[in-house]
Amino acid sequence: MLCFHPGRRENLDFSVMYLSAQPGGRLLDVGCGSGHKLRFLQDLGWAAEGVDIDPGAVDSARSKGLQVRLGTLEDQGYPENYFDAVTMSHLIEHVYDPLKLLGECRRILKPGGRLVAVTPNSKSWLHGLFESNWLALDPPRHLHIFSPSSLRSLAVKAGFLKFRLSTTIREANGLFMASKLIQNTGRYRWGCPLPRAFRLQARGMQLLEWAILKFKPDLGEEIALVGEK
């Protein structure tokens, strides 16, 4: 039934960070925030822990009984060849040195371990439509906006020679609504109530992007990179 709901499969893949179940496998979520996804992955059987630079988020995650460290990944000094998987959701666009970050991820992964990185796609269809009003530009918080080719090149430089890379329509409806509001009003407030007709229009745009990706697969709103050490 997933194929009849454009976006549903992408939401499901993202919820498990594009990983097959590996009960007992060591997983590190970099930029784990308050630990919502970390808890979900733990419930799926991963021996999951996290790291984040936000003290408030770390305190919140720890209050849930999650094992989370405070600081950058590079500061932690994890052992080499230690984790079965390292995940990063919308993190790499925030860091000053993404190559150094990917290199450290590769160092701490076991041979055959997987890195999963999800990030906005500079080549996305909606970026082409909205240009500077595209929400995912998010200045000044986003320091880098990758295209599939630039993220592919970065992964190779970091030593990932075996990987798959795809773009998806996940959250395309939300990105459309936010970008349209920025275009029309100059601002967008997270969580603001939106008319039902506007939300239906956004779903229609997500469906249209799903069709476009059948012919131009690099135009999705997010890039999902799954690399293997």
The low-pLDDT segments are: none
Decide which structural class fits the backbone: alpha/beta
From the coordinates shown, what is the CATH architecture?
Answer: 3-Layer(aba) Sandwich
| CATH fold annotation | Rossmann fold
Tally of separate domains: 1
CATH class, named: Alpha Beta
Per DSSP, the total helix count is 9
**Helix-strand pattern:** HEHEHEHEHEHHEHHE
Enumerate the strands of the largest sheet in spatial order, edge to edge or round the barrel.
3-2-1-4-5-7-6
Question: Would you kindly provide a brief summary of this structure?
Answer:
Helix content is 38%, strand content 21%. It has 229 residues and is an alpha/beta fold.
Walkthrough of the structure:
The chain is α/β, with parallel strands linked by helices and 229 residues long. The protein has a single domain, classed as Rossmann fold (3-Layer(aba) Sandwich). It is built from nine helices and seven strands. It has a seven-stranded mixed sheet with strand order 3-2-1-4-5-7-6, with helices on both faces. Strand 4, helix 5 and strand 5 form a beta-alpha-beta unit. Helix 8 packs across helix 9. It is globular. The two termini are 34 Å apart. The model has no long low-confidence stretch (mean pLDDT 94).
